[in-house]
Amino acid sequence: EIDRMIGTIKNAWAVPVEERVSYIRRYVVREIFDSGRLHALAENCRRASRLLANNDIAFIFTDGLQNRTINTTMEIAKSSDIATGVSWHGPYIQDYKLDILGCDPRYGRIVDYCLTWGDVHEDWLRSIGSGAETIRIGNLILSGQAPSEMAAERKTQNALILQYAAPHADIFWPQAGQYGFFVAAARAYRDAGFQNIRLKLHPGPSKIEYYERIAALFDIECEIVIEGPFMKHVEWADSVTGPVHSGAMLEVMRAGKPYLPALYGPHGINRSYLDEEILIEDDDALRQAIARNARPDAGPTLERFASARSIPDPAATAWAVFEKVAGQPGHA
Fold first, then answer.
1. How far, in Å, CA of 83 to CA of 271, rounded?
2. SS in 3 state form for the chain?
3. Per-residue pLDDT tens digits for 96-110
4. Inter-residue contact 250 to 90 (CB < 8 Å)
């Protein structure tokens, strides 16, 4: 069937067209039709159909809002009256619309429920025009992490820098800007007297070589890591800085460690979601915050982003929602 569809389109494209259109068609033929992508997508559909047909599934829940395989499964589930729910994997603080949430009128919503972290999550859903029902459960990532109070002593031994890995959807932010942030942060920590500086890279394609070359060029003594349990790095640190849009920010704050949240421009982030009082927006502000060993109050951010105070056990809250949704008529 896929081959027949491709053949029909190729035959229709056989007529001469202007070069711009011809270039686009050649690209589509090479990268989509002849690459086997459509066949792989069709196989994903078949696997998802078998999964749903062979199991008694009442509710599908995911934090993979843009995962093609998961979205395919949810779309097929909708035709079988299986309830679907999503949550965040990390904060979406750009007003970035997603078709699965009903933000594109050309594409039907496939998500029934948004299980939200807190106020910011729900503000974002309203901003993008989501049509899904919201149920607040808190931040599941913090479920197994007991809250810790910030230590009274201001230590200047170990500094942890988190890679400024901005969302790829933020077309305003130049990805190369992350390297300047690293240099500014490492220099500021060194000048403030911190003895050990560690850069933790985000999981994914490794940029260790880039950062090692930059560290050597700017004479920065810094341990650069990508592996290992994240909370081990947090426990080691006396001060942490990194991007405000990272879910790791909330884990650091929950652990009672000082977090200096950076929001460098240009960017496409909706500032109304953020605590303006603790934002660091340029190298000068970063140097000043590190020099005074700043310890921003994390309480308001933890509550607005993760309902950390009002929902102390997100996992139990989520399970109660799962059981309620799955037990509703038509989903049992």
1. 33
2. CHHHHHHHHHHHCCCCCCHHHHHHHHHHHHHHHCCCHHHHHHHHHHHHHHHHHHCCCCEEEECCCCCHHHHHHHHHHHCCCCEEEECCCCCCCECCCCHHHCCCCCCCCCCCEEEECCHHHHHHHHHHCCCCEEEECCCHHHCCCCCCCCCCCCCCCEEEEECCCCCCCCCCCCCCHHHHHHHHHHHHHHHCCCCEEEEECCCCCCCHHHHHHHHHHCCCCCEEECCCCHHHHHHHCCEEEEECCCCHHHHHHHCCCCEEEECCCCCCECHHHCCHHHCECCHHHHHHHHHCCCCCCCHHHHHHHHCCCCCCCHHHHHHHHHHHHHCCCCCC
3. 899 999 999 888 899
4. no
Asked if residue 200 lies in contact with residue 160, where contact means CB atoms within 8 angstroms, the answer is yes
> Is the Cβ–Cβ distance between 255 and 231 less than 8 Å?
yes
For the chain, give the mean pLDDT: 93
- Tens-digit pLDDT profile for residues 213-238: 999 999 999 999 999 999 999 999 99
Pick the range with the lowest mean pLDDT from 3-12, 16-25, 56-65, 200-209: 200-209
- Distance (Å) of CA 13 to CA 32, 36, 38, 171, 212: 15, 19, 18, 33, 49
Burial tier of 51 (Cβ tally within 10 Å: 0-12, 13-18, 19+): middle
**How far is C-alpha 183 from the chain's CA centre?**
24
Percentage of the chain exceeding pLDDT 90 = 85
Residue 332 reports pLDDT greater than 70: no
pTM of the predicted model, to two decimals?
0.89
